[in-house]
Specification:
Largest sheet: 3 strands, antiparallel
Shape: globular
Protein name: G-protein coupled receptors family 1 profile domain-containing protein
CATH architecture of the largest domain: Up-down Bundle
Mean pLDDT: 75
Subcellular location: Membrane
Structural class: mainly alpha
Low-confidence stretches: 239-276
Family: Belongs to the nematode receptor-like protein srd family.
Membrane topology: Multi-pass membrane protein
Number of helices: 11
CATH topology of the largest domain: Rhopdopsin 7-helix transmembrane proteins
Pfam family, one: 7TM_GPCR_Srd
């Protein structure tokens, strides 16, 4: 019998992590080789995010579970007693029987659940201050129009990236619901990890799209690829002209993509006069 929640989670897990690894590697390349001098300082911040997210995706791709010191047989017995409708066959079972008695588990849980709210509030406060500062220098000699436009694009990127902790909030909420026993299901437990995977995968896409030099480089690469592909498919026409004695005109053979077309070219009035 197919465990559909697990199957969907595995497909989601490997797909999102692969996308995150690819686009973070692309952003790392852009930050190092394609960053203009005007945003060099900001690119250091993006490079830091890209390296961190790249490491997160790589680690999550090859790490599917964490072991604990509690006895596996006791954990399995507890789970089968509490969740009789769960499928535990051919599964790796690990965990902590009582998180209040394990400081390792408690530190990890507190670190993953508590900082998200104050960090999100700090992001929103800083975003508001940045908008106010940009508005105060808009139209003055302190900042040119091009620089102001670039900063506005970066601000939009930061604003969207500020929304990414929302996915982590979903992870915290789903974990809290399951931990407190409000509702339990395999889908809810998989949601705890699946929603958090979107953060390192979406973040580089936002940076590449809103930073104009990076976006222009991607577009240029695309058109180069498209042009190369079209040139490899469409061959240039080759025209071969043969003159046949006794005919009133020349027969022109036109080859296009190895298909032969024939057309008869009539003599011009001047050529006819010269012939007579």
């Amino acid at each position: 019998m197919i465990d559909w929640p697990l199957t969907i989670f595995e497909i989601w897990h490997y797909t999102v992590n692969t996308i995150g690894i690819s686009f973070n590697a692309l952003l790392i390349y852009m930050c190092i080789f394609k960053t203009p001098q005007a945003i060099r300082s900001y690119s250091v911040l993006m490079l830091n995010f890209a390296i961190s997210d790249f490491g997160t995706c790589m680690t999550d791709l090859f790490t599917t579970y964490l072991t604990s010191n509690d006895d596996q047989a006791k954990i399995e017995a507890r789970l089968r007693n509490r969740f009789p409708n769960y499928d535990f066959d051919n599964k790796t079972i690990t965990g902590t029987l009582n998180i209040l008695e394990s400081w390792q588990a408690m530190v990890t849980i507190l670190h993953m659940t508590l900082p998200v709210t104050p960090a999100y509030c700090a992001i929103l406060i800083l975003r508001k201050k940045i908008i106010r500062e940009l508005a105060s220098v808009a139209g003055t000699a302190k900042m040119s129009h091009a620089t102001q436009t670039m900063h506005q694009q970066l601000l939009r990127a930061l604003s969207l990236q500020a929304c990414l902790p929302f996915f982590f909030s979903i992870s915290v909420a789903s974990y809290t619901i399951g931990q407190l026993g409000i509702y339990n299901s395999p889908a809810l437990e998989y949601l705890t990890f699946s929603s958090a995977l979107l953060i390192p995968a979406i973040s580089p896409l936002i940076s590449v799209y809103f930073v104009r030099p990076y976006r222009s480089t991607i577009i240029l690469w695309y058109y180069r690829f498209l042009t190369t592909k079209m040139c490899s498919i469409i061959k240039p026409p080759t025209t071969v002209t043969h003159l046949f004695v006794g005919e009133s005109g020349s027969k022109k053979l036109l080859f296009w993509n190895e298909t032969e077309y024939q057309s008869v070219a009539r003599k011009s009035h001047s050529q006819q006069s010269h012939h007579y």
